[in-house]
User: Fold these one by one.
Assistant:
Number 1:
Amino acid sequence: MVFARAARTREQFDWPLFLAVVCIAIMGVVNLYSATSPYIDDPRRSGLADMYVQQVYWLVIGGLLGTLAAVVDYRTIERFAYVLYGIGVSSLVLVLLLASDIRGSSRWIELGRFAFQPSEFMKLFVVVAIARKLADDPRTEARTLLDMVPAAMLFVIPAVLVMAQPDFGTSMIYTACALTMLALARVRRSSLALGVIGVIPIAWGMWHFGLREYQKHRILSFLDPEADRTGTGWHALQSRTAIGNGGLWGEGFREGTQNQFGFLPDQFSDFPFSVFAEDWGFIGCMALLALYAFVCAWAINIASLAKDRFGAAVAVGIGATFFWHTVFNVGMTVGVLPVVGITLPLFSYGGSSTLTTLVGFGLLMNVSLRR
Amino acid sequence: MKLFVQRSDVGEFRRRYHFMVLGILVAFAVLTARLAQLQIAEAQNHRSQARRNIVGRVTLATTRGVIRDSQGRVLAANRPSYDIYVVPDVIDMKDTWPRAVQLMGLDAAKARDYRQRILDIRAKGGKRKLQQTLLEVDVNRDVVAALETHAAELPGIDVVPTPVRYYPYGQVGAHLLGYMREIDAEGLARYDGENYRAGDRMGAVGVERRWESYLRGQRGWQKVVRGQNRRAQRTGLGEQYLEEPRRLEPIPGRDISLTIDIELEKAIQREMRGQLAGAVVVVDVRTGRLLAALSKPGFDPNILSGEEGKEAIRDAFRRLSRDPLKPLLDKTTSAVYPPGSTYKPFSALAALADGLIDPNAEVDCMGGYEFGRRYFRCTGVHRKVNLHEAIVRSCNTYFYALGELIHIDQLAKVGMDFGFGAKTGIGINPEARGRMPTRAWYARRYKGDGFRGGFTLLAAIGQGATTVTVLQLALAYAALANDGTLYQPQLVRSIETSSGTTVQEFPPRVRSIIDVEPGQLALIKNALHGVVEDSEGTAYSESVGDVDVAGKTGTAQVSHVTPRSVDPKRVWYFNRDHAWFAGYAPANAPEIAIVVLIEHGGGGGKNAAPVAMRVVDAWQKLGKKRLAARGGESSRRDGAHL
């Protein structure tokens, strides 16, 4: 029995997914090295230059956790979906109650030496919970908007909690991701139209009551970047300059001047893609985007082959998380979307986000193994 | 197992997958298109923007030319002033700035002020935030040392040594040399272009101003890679982006050698110690070269040039501009005075040239002269005097009689032949013309009729409407001394490059050869010698040592001031006569001409003549010392040959 399972695993091991993720992760570490290399000789900030080593640690830990997530049968996870979700929501509430204030927003929980961001892990819990909800509620006829409300509440609650931190980007990721998953369900045309119209008052309410001044400022400066060449607009401008400076073939590894001379802000968290694009040019970008696009499409493929609704929904959810992160992040660095703090999976430095991403791929592998 | 799998359940999702894949493709296609736009279509623009970000131009300072005297002694030079600059965009206001404030030792108010300035420039954006902005000027050595030691921890703070002007002799010759002043908005507009920037200093007054374009030199620049990346500094990353030419060498300003002798200048300063205000000019009668010129009271060009900071400059100007003795005025060229009796030789020459007087004919001086309904006073009762005695004893009555005979235009004509009433062309400082009154001038002045013969009488003794500058008088006496050559005064002898090569030499320039009868001139010169040599002479008792001077004293009446224009307690001073002495030495083989004016000094013979004598004495001693030095040198050289 054990041998049979092992053989089956080998047979069905998802090499394309594994290799694509490993490729992206390696490129991410290499790029992180380039991004922080200006600090190598700087006595005051040499700590930042070791960031890529730390990222490797996170990848190793993430790989172990991801393997764990791949090995446990996902039906076990399905069973505990709401429990996990509950833990996630509690920790978000906890963050709001006691997290210390870092740079104007409180996102962290400190445990001894480590500080982690519950909002990152919450992405997985939202995916699992919504998948559970969709799996529990099979229908043959189209649904009304009212039918969708319980599932929608599953993302609205954490989205509001995260918004309160305030973390507009993550809140947006929850929303985009959940909506993608909910799109799996068949909804009446009329309900859909109503939903679309309903977005308008919600957006108006968000603008006036939900967003803080600096967030509004970012969006406004995106709409009119020339109006603000010094503040937020300046970041976006320098990012575009860096990418354009890469040209077709790139400036070369660690040769991109925009990054090397400190014109890219947050180059290891929000703008690693600009560093990559400057170093490797259009050709490099194409290779990287192809990998990202492949992983996204492959997740849909896994979903289509999944043997049950939960597996399919989880696959779509993980794929959507990955997809929206990539599109929002690259979109903002190339200047087609406003600057919101959304990381580029496996390229941005960060423990919580790397672990979340790899555990997510573990789940995806899990579904792929058990089709 | 398969039995439990209800694949039909998954069917609800199935129809969405291809939409999702399509969505993925569209999203990535959009990103690809945008990347193609940035990295292929617009690549050139972004690349040049990226280059502009890192390539900067650093100004390379030039050094202002040195000013020397005729013996090669430095009169104006440069010393380094350490100025602190900040690059607003580079400096870290949270970490670096407090450290810099502490190292610079700024007080809280100043630190706040500067901080605000930096933030303002940052907020405004544009090019300025990437450029160096001046914070502190001429900080002391300790601060410089502290900042240099911690330079690595202070990105965005730069210490830049800039040369500032330094005048080793202080007040001596200040009006001739001038000083340096920060360029104002008007100056910037006038001298726009590369060479002047806000905060620059330019020559104000004197040689510094007149020869600014020579002294200044030309700034250079160098293209550099900007930014604080150590690796880039080590590996030269980014250097390949510096386009040629990468550097323009600065051109140092030209050095200027003057004709003046600072030792003589110092001697004059010393001899004028006891006087409140006045002017002295010494010129070489054989060349018209200015050997010394003093205007008193003076100012310290070091302070006006900013040696003690901007506050000190403001204070000094406030004090100087309020001083009733007008220290900022160059009294050798920019101010006019009635020449008084020092003008008598020229009146005599005018009368002799027209054959109006017989030098041997005598006039009986009873202490005054009656003309029309007025009585013109003399300085004393001289009884019978001929021309010689009239000059030696300075008898006004003789010249009143002469004035009755002569036409005023003839007086003016001869005066103008000697350079009065026109600018001498020295080139520095605003020059006054003085006035040689003519009938035409009086007609203009008094609207047609109103000319009276009395005007000519006054003009003959150098009073009335006649005014001259000290420099004009010195040059006119030089022309008497050299038998009729009127020189253009010369202050700059040559221009050299900073390495010492002479670029241009200025030979003496003759303004005109005066048409004067040698015999008549000899009469006058003889009389001028008599003023000092003859026991009757007005300056007889004042001669010192072995000086051999010929000259004329003068006591010029001033137009009375009212207590309104000056401090009432000082009215008595401002109503006193000006004391003059004008002459040349040695009397028989003249080399220098000298004019001493002591403002409100009283009688010329008593007050101005002694100063002139001692200055001539000092000049003689300097000449002997120099001769001895040169002689000793040549004999040593000879000895070596033997």
Note: Chain A touches chain B through 62 residues (CB under 8 Å).
Number 2:
Amino acid sequence: MTAAGEILLGIFRQAWTLIAGLLVLVAILGGLAQVFKITGGVLLSSNIWVSQAVSGMLGVILIALIAFLSVPAIAHAALVSSATGCGPIAEIGQLAGMLIGGIGSLRMLKGTFLAVVSTSISGSGGVSNALIEIAETIFGMLLITVAAPVAAAFFGAC
Amino acid sequence: MGIFQVVYDNIANIARDAWGFMVGLLIIVAMLGGLYYALQGGAGMAFGGSKMAAYAIIGIVGLVVVVLIAFLMLPELGTLLQNNTPKAPF
């Protein structure tokens, strides 16, 4: 079971690297698109366009940077705090905790990726959706860390 | 990146092409904008419109500054992001 878990975690790690790489690509291209908007705004003498594009470009980079710094910290904190049960189900609990942590981290990164894509095209709902997804993931992970010991105690494993 | 390497390489190639296309387009737009401002400034000078000429000079300088800032700043920001790409926390 541990070997199967390791294989899955390896795939999750590779997916994490892929999403992080794509996030960088999208952020850079989104920044360039905002530069287009700035240039158009300058040519058409549109102050609103210029200000929107400048804030959009900085926003894209900031969201990506904050995501890169905060998502691993959040995932690490949630994983460290996970009590994985006791007795014979300790191993299963540990494995489940790792897998849930991996899926949760991927989900948070995916939410951030969508936020960056949305901001790149001047969308407004992406960031709030990403925040909701991150909050859902954290709550889910915390809930599971509570549920595993309770279930273990209920079934008399501890 | 393991099994996703092929996917990433393909998308990165497309993104690289898109980057080159957009940079080229940006240069063309900036050059056309510069030409427009040059015409405006020329007309202003020909007809004694000092305000027109001043706006044109400011516009052309602003355009160059914007494009230069973008070309210098964006690659730096991209490098910053790439350097801060985190490893998987699990």
Note: Residues 2-154 of chain A form one domain.
